[in-house]
Design goal:
Radius of gyration: 42 Å
Oligomer: single chain
Distance between the termini: 105 Å
Shape: rod-shaped
Helix content: 55-70%
Number of domains: 2
Number of strands: 10
Largest sheet: 5 strands, antiparallel
Structural class: alpha+beta
Length: 538
């Protein structure tokens, strides 16, 4: 097996090999038990065989460790190929250490049986059975279990010290060990390997000892039972120690993630250290932190957009002889799709505009900004009233998508003749309050942005002293009551206007908004815009 010589890539490999120190310790203690219980002497094994066994043990399981680690050496950079390396590392460890344990178990069995045959030691069938079971339980069960646990812990440590692997998408892949390595199954697996199986084997050995006819055979079987007891006890200590350390690292990361949430540090991330259910929980925390961070960034963007849109709100003109203006706008979100404006023309006349863009939020706000820009440019160029509407409609037909449209009421106030030209493109009817009563200025053309070629019908109305024009958006009439079953409606609006006839014009917008809140509470789900003007009484 060729191994790259790049020191930066060999250093983690050396760390992995050193982390396998529990295996030789386990083997040394088991060898000591064999010598203490007298079975090694009974089999006629010389002391120098222990040194040879240890050397072969190290060579065998070092080869297994290198085979386990090989994909990480082939990635071109340390831990670069996580998809083929770190994710499948536990499965490779299980295979490698199982093969290594099988090979080494076969060697031990051959060594013991050959030496017994050479020295004339007779082993009964029951003694041979206990020897085979104890060797292969240690080699094929306990050693691979330790190897996998060490590899899992090593992978956790490496993911922890490499921040670039804090949230690895490849770890979502299916892994055959998932059903054995999740946090709920892992304790039962440890119990099975180090508790249930050894205890069952000890009971089996006791049964075999009762069946054995010779005293030497009973002593040999008891010695193998003692070895099995110490092997299971030692393996359980190592496994619990490794799993406890691993869980401590994982839960510490989860506590860091919860601390990030508590402190509002949404840009923080935690390392996804495992690909089990705890790894999914860590990934879920990272997803939550990422979503909250995006929400905070969006809130900042919305605040900036709201500030920009607030800058589009016009100042009420105070230099129009004989006329008073008042307005109010309340967006449902930070930014909205309602728009109102009073634009002074070069000849001293004024465009009075109220529009409602279909939809809410950013898309509607962008359309509002576009409409504002077009109206002001057209006003500066003294484009005639009718042509301005045609130009705006064609532009909106080209820019609006997905069935969006704009309802608009636009009037040209002519103070010198106390008259007003107006058109209503699909907007809720404004209310003209005069001595004759309250007149609804009904829509006479479709909304803007629907049909590119359309004729707009402009009408004219005289403004008598004391007349009031009340323009609003559908957020007023469509406000629902607190029970959610009834809208405020036009009839209530007209009744409120009649009741407010003696109030000053400047009090009307806020007064109506207070009435809407009284009617619907906090159930409002649309933008509300109110614009009104009054010709002063003579």
């Amino acid at each position: 097996m060729s191994v790259p010589s790049n020191p930066s890539r060999l250093r983690p490999l050396a760390t992995y090999l050193l982390s396998l120190w529990p295996l030789p310790v386990f083997f040394t203690i088991i060898q000591g038990v064999m010598w203490l219980n007298g079975n090694s002497a009974f089999l006629g094994l010389p002391y120098w065989v222990s040194d040879v066994d240890m050397l072969l043990f190290l060579l065998c399981f070092s080869a297994a460790a290198l085979w386990t680690y090989r994909p990480l050496l082939d990635t071109g950079q340390t831990f670069g190929g996580l998809e083929a390396g770190m994710v499948k590392l536990p499965l490779r460890a299980l295979r490698a250490f199982a093969v290594g344990g099988g090979v080494y178990g076969m060697y031990l069995l051959f060594l013991v049986l050959a030496n017994a045959s050479a020295t004339g030691v007779e082993l009964s069938g029951l003694m041979t059975t206990t020897l085979i079971v104890s060797i292969f339980f240690c080699a094929l069960v306990l050693v691979p279990a330790l190897g996998v646990a060490i590899t899992l812990h090593y992978g956790i440590q490496q993911r922890l010290v490499h921040p670039q692997y804090a949230d690895i998408e490849q770890m979502k892949q299916w892994n055959p060990l998932h059903s054995f390595t999740d946090s709920t199954t892992r304790p039962w697996l440890v119990f099975l390997i180090t508790g249930f199986v050894p205890t069952s084997l000890l009971a089996f050995f006791a049964y075999l000892a009762s069946m054995e006819t010779t005293l030497e055979g009973k002593h040999f079987i008891a010695g193998q039972g003692l070895l099995l007891f110490f092997a299971g006890l030692l393996a359980s200590l190592f496994l619990v120690w490794l799993l406890t350390r691993s869980l401590k690292l994982v839960t510490h990361q989860l506590s860091i993630g919860l601390h990030h949430l508590h402190q509002g540090h949404f840009s923080g991330r935690i390392a996804v250290l495992t690909d089990d259910d705890l790894g999914e929980l860590a990934r879920g925390l990272n997803t939550a932190l990422r979503g909250l961070q995006e929400r905070e960034e969006l809130k900042g963007s919305l605040a900036a957009a709201a500030e920009i849109q607030h800058g589009l709100v016009p100042q009420m003109p105070r230099d129009v002889p004989g006329y008073t203006f008042a307005a109010l706008e309340q967006s449902y979100f930070s930014v909205g799709g309602d728009y109102y404006d009073i634009i002074c023309l070069p000849d001293g006349r004024h465009w009075v505009v109220v529009a409602d863009v279909a939809g809410k939020g950013y898309p509607a706000a962008l359309t509002v900004a576009n409409l504002h820009a077009m109206l002001h440019v057209l006003a500066e160029q003294s484009v005639p009233f009718e042509r301005a509407i045609l130009h705006i409609n064609r532009s909106l037909c080209r820019t609006l998508t997905h069935g969006r449209f704009v309802t608009l009421f636009m009037a040209k106030l002519q103070p010198e003749s106390h008259s007003m030209l107006w058109l209503n493109a699909g907007h809720v009817p404004p209310l003209l309050q005069s001595a004759r009563g309250i007149e609804r200025l009904q829509a006479n053309t479709p909304p803007l942005g629907v049909l590119e070629e359309i004729a707009f019908e402009v009408q004219r109305v005289e403004i008598a002293a004391g007349d009031r024009l009340f323009v609003y958006t559908d957020g007023v009439t469509e406000t629902q009551n607190k029970q959610g079953g009834e809208m405020f409606g036009t009839a209530r609006l007209i009744e409120w206007l009649r009741d407010s006839e003696d109030k000053k014009l400047l009090e009307l917008p806020q007064g109506l908004f207070s009435r809407l809140h009284e009617f619907g509470g906090d159930s409002r789900d649309d933008d509300v815009t109110i614009l009104c003007f009054e010709r002063e009484k003579l």
